[in-house]
Specification:
CATH architecture of the largest domain: 3-Layer(aba) Sandwich
Radius of gyration: 20 Å
Number of strands: 11
Number of domains: 3
Strand content: 15-25%
CATH topology of the largest domain: Rossmann fold
Bound molecules: nicotinamide-adenine-dinucleotide, magnesium ion
Shape: globular
CATH class of the largest domain: Alpha Beta
Strand order of the largest sheet: 4-3-2-1-5-6-7
Largest sheet: 7 strands, parallel
Order of helices and strands: EHEHEHEHEHEHEHEHHHEEEHHHHHH
């Protein structure tokens, strides 16, 4: 029997890589549902190719247009909105869910998949950052299998003992070594970054990704979000994790053991590797990724992160330490800041300033329900938007 997959964020960078892996294994996987915000043309093509039962557009107008273009004879039912996303993520007939919506919009459908006990392929790190304890609890309660798709966390997962139970020390683990490429601005000073443009920021040296995560990579907030992501996924503290800048992006992360061994996962900077790993785990399948040529790479370099030029990494550590609603606030303020930078409303170096100010104004509250998460997220978005209005005025 073929396994069924719902791809949330199908039109994006991770979504398209996921469909490429599916395409290579027609006897193994079948698309149950595809979703996108509003990319009608892309969805139309993918629906024709993969013939899903459902297509969900976040935007209601886009759903109407897509439905008209597909015509009455289409076997795919077009739906719209957040509830429909949760429905296709938790449907009885779905085996696995690729969570690849960008940002906080991914939270509710991803949690729905976890509660329904699906194999959750987690690319949408923001949902774990903003609601970590609740998310992990939903995974436990639902009996879901959570597999990290973020390349670093996938590498850590592969380097941990096969039945890692969340206890670092008892498993003989001394440290997790989280690698970072350093992004397009590695080696620059704060003043050199004063006038960088969105186009310069999204031009990542090694990876081709969506615009939001590309800016996060340039500010190093991506590594900050990943630090928090790793703490929740592997049940550890920021002090158990060392961020290692490794410009070649060949080693995707490592685990250091107490007797001195370091286990690493290496590969091309191609997300189809962690995607295929997550889809087939514990088996391995072809992903269309070329073998690594170590002679061509010839050298691997490592250095510590530059906290002065890239304050976002430390801000994330502080948010995790503060706990409660603070990681939610960090994530929301970052989303607003990145969006404003991409729209050229604020400068690159104002991204960390904005986030720091919003965090400074926040009174931490306990997070006991998703409603609390949504409330903290909304508070931080409002606060960040006001900050931008003041700075533009
Ligand atoms: P992208 O911008 O290329 O794609 C985002 C997808 O989400 C699109 O399909 C878009 O239509 C959909 N979307 C956007 N807003 C939405 C909304 N409000 N409601 C519903 N759907 C919406 O992003 P990406 O690079 O594919 O990244 C997706 C996620 O994966 C992010 O959380 C990112 O951090 C994570 N991730 C990406 C990479 C990568 O290499 N691209 C690597 C690791 C982790
Ligand atoms: Mg990553």
């Amino acid at each position: 029997m073929r396994q069924t997959i719902t791809v949330l964020g199908a039109s994006g960078s991770i979504g398209q890589s996921t469909l490429d892996v599916v395409r290579r294994h027609p006897n193994r996987y079948q698309v149950f549902a595809l979703s996108a915000a509003r990319s009608i043309e892309r969805m139309l093509e993918d629906i024709r190719e993969f013939q899903p039962r459902y297509a969900v557009m976040a935007d209601a107008g886009a759903a109407v247009q897509l439905s008209e273009l597909l015509g009455d004879s289409s076997a795919t039912e077009v739906l719209a909105g957040c509830d429909s996303l949760a429905m296709v993520a938790s449907h009885h007939d779905v085996d696995m869910v690729m969570a690849a919506i960008v940002g906080a919009a991914g939270l509710l459908p991803t949690i729905a998949a976890a509660e329904a006990g699906k194999r959750v392929l987690l690319a949408n790190k923001e949902s774990l950052v903003m609601a970590g304890p609740l998310f992990m609890e939903a995974v436990r309660r639902g009996g879901a299998t959570l597999l990290p798709i973020d390349s670093e966390h996938n590498a850590i997962f592969q380097s941990l003992p096969a039945h890692y139970n969340g206890e670092l020390r008892k498993n003989g683990i001394r440290k997790i070594l989280l690698t970072a490429s350093g992004g397009p601005f590695r080696g620059k000073t704060l003043s050199e970054l004063a006038n960088v443009t969105p186009e310069q920021a999204v031009a990542h040296p090694n990876w081709s990704m969506g615009r939001k995560i590309s800016v996060d990579s340039a500010t190093l907030m991506n590594k900050g979000l990943e630090l928090i992501e790793a703490c929740f996924l592997f049940n550890c503290q920021p002090s158990d994790i060392q961020v290692v800048v490794h410009p070649q992006s060949v080693i995707h992360s490592m685990v250091q053991y107490c007797e001195g061994s370091v286990i690493a996962q290496l590969g091309q900077p191609d997300m189809r590797t962690p995607i295929a790993y997550g889809m087939a785990w514990p088996e391995r399948i072809e992903a269309g990724v070329a073998s690594l040529d170590l002679f061509e790479i010839s050298r691997l370099e490592f250095c510590p992160p530059d906290h002065e030029t890239f304050p976002c990494l430390a801000l994330a550590g502080q948010a995790f330490a503060a706990g409660g609603s603070m990681p939610t606030v960090l994530n929301a303020a970052n989303e607003i800041a990145v969006d404003a930078f991409l729209q050229e409303q604020i400068a690159f170096n104002q991204i960390p300033t904005l986030i720091r100010d919003v965090m400074g104004m926040h009174v931490v509250t306990d997070i006991e329900s998703i409603d609390h998460v949504i409330e903290a997220d909304r508070w931080a978005r409002d606060c960040a938007s006001q900050w931008i209005s003041r700075s533009v005025a």
